[in-house]
Amino acid sequence: MKKLIILFIGAILFPALMYANNDWANYQRYAADNAKVDFKPKAVLMGDSITDGWPGADRDFFTYNKFVGRGISGQVTGQMLLRFRQDVVDLHPEYVVILAGTNDVAGNYGEIDLEKTFGNIVSMCEIAKANKIKPVLCSILPASKFGWSGATQVPEKIMMLNGWIKEYAKANKIKYVDYHSAMKNEQNGLSADLAADGVHPTKEGYSIMEELLLKAIK
């Protein structure tokens, strides 16, 4: 009887899991929104949940500056790279602002070498440049730990990856936005006033990011 129940549950779940894996990059998330973009964006903001939550925290920031948000919660850099053409290149922005790597460090889809994460970010820059889009690289935000993950040495890994991103930006004359230095506390994490959960910015946290980003672009 137990075997029959297990088989029955598997028969239900397996097709659903297969369907979900068919869109691992989540191409469908912004497919309809992309079709409605009828202007040339000043910048497309590519990222994970930190970028995903930004328009909800300050919609006027995006509207006034002609920015388009294309963040998807939980995503790693590999997923962003897969959807980069659809969600960035095809919108023909002047800039693409890349804020990526938090979920790689957290190990959302298993542990990944930081070198591979860095490589994915470099690939996004190269695709942007090949399509006459100016990349803007952002440091990963500070974090002392991730509540959903058992990842270790989080602050150290973030700072190491940020160092590589900064060096690459300098060597390739790419604008670099250093959120980490402006927002970190004594533990190289985020204080509660800037991120209630230590990861996702509050309105005050986003305000700091907005000022730094506009300064870099303008």
Total domain units: 1
> Total number of β-strand segments?
5
Query: What's the CATH topology name?
Result: Rossmann fold
Any low-confidence stretches, pLDDT <50, length ≥5? 1-19
Count of runs of 4 or more consecutive helical residues: 11
Strand content: 5-15%
Major β-sheet, in short?
A: 5 strands, parallel
- Can you name the CATH architecture? 3-Layer(aba) Sandwich
Structural class: alpha/beta
* Helical content class: 40-55%
The rounded distance between the terminal residues' Cα atoms is: 67 Å
Compute the CA-based radius of gyration.
Answer: 18 Å
What's the level 1 CATH class? Alpha Beta
The CATH superfamily appears as: SGNH hydrolase
Give a written overview of the molecule:
This protein is globular. The chain contains 11 helices and 5 strands. It has a single domain (42-217), classed as SGNH hydrolase (Rossmann fold). It is 52% helix and 11% strand.
